[in-house]
Fold:
Amino acid sequence: MESIASAPGKIILFGEHAVVYNQPAIAAAVDKRAVVSVKKSENNYTTLKSYDLGFEAILNTKEKSYELVSGKPGIIRYILEAFFNAHDHSPVDILLSLAFPVGSGLGSSAAVTVATLAALYGYHNKKFTKKTLAHNAYIVEKKVQGMASPLDTLISTNAGLIYLNRDKKVSRFKVDLKPTFVIGYTSKKRSTQKMVKKVSELRKRNPIVVDSIIQTMGLLTEEAKNAILKMDNDKIAQLLNINQGLLDSIGVNTVELSRMVFRARKYGASGAKITGAGGGGSMIAFCPNRSGEVYHSLKNRDNGLKVNISNEGIILKTRV
Ligand code: PMV
Structure:
């Protein structure tokens, strides 16, 4: 029996960093997914292979350890933790595909964790709801990282375009944001925790100024909510650009991100900004008309990915 589950990655459109200070945020699942397949092994040990990430390993799921066979390991700790929580430790072969980069603020760890847990529930014929899946995936992320936001696993499980209000309540937009986004990502790994700390230190030294920027980010996200509801693409683009300026002002921009933002705008993006924690990672370009040109302009110099917002959350299939 083979159990195959897939779950999407995410982008933050508005409100990163401000959300840490209880301001609202808008985020969305994208049509780039993590796919995890689990099937009974012919051997008496468990293997994990990923052609996309270029590695192969033998796992000891009972002890949460692994031996590398080839390549450089990626994202294994999340898989081991998920297996530790939801598997009986019988030998299986695991295949992982990932259509977007790891560690770039696109929710790879959440997507891989959600897909791994769902594949295991399918393999063991265990019933689950989206609510328990998102929660259990959050617990796995928290265990591995020490600290996690429940938003990534929630979006990866349920998908869609989401508004997180000041009380951390999530609601789904009923309208679709149709235009394509282009993601530009740097190969520079960054730590979300470090970037959050950097902003908090800046705020400590400049409380009045930084607090007013954070509040402005909150107002901007509320305006963006209205613009999305009205499907006003020009306004959405303007707000994305303003948000970029605010993110720059709190010190999370980098030369590479800035270069991609300006390049995307030059080649036709109407709005472009950092997505997620910054300091490396990714930027998004809103391209209602010229996504092709923007994609090529980013890909030629850095790394580009065309995405659309997706309403497809967790998908699980089993076959005998
Ligand atoms: O880059 P990501 O996906 O780790 O996003 C971080 C978003 C922050 O607002 C900076 C932190 C958070 O936990 O919300």
Q: What stands out?
A: The pocket of PMV is lined by residues 12, 16-17, 19-20, 105, 107, 149, 192, 195-196, 276-277, 281 (CB under 6 Å). The chain has a mean pLDDT of 96. The chain has nine helices and 13 strands. The first strand starts at residue 2 and ends at 14.
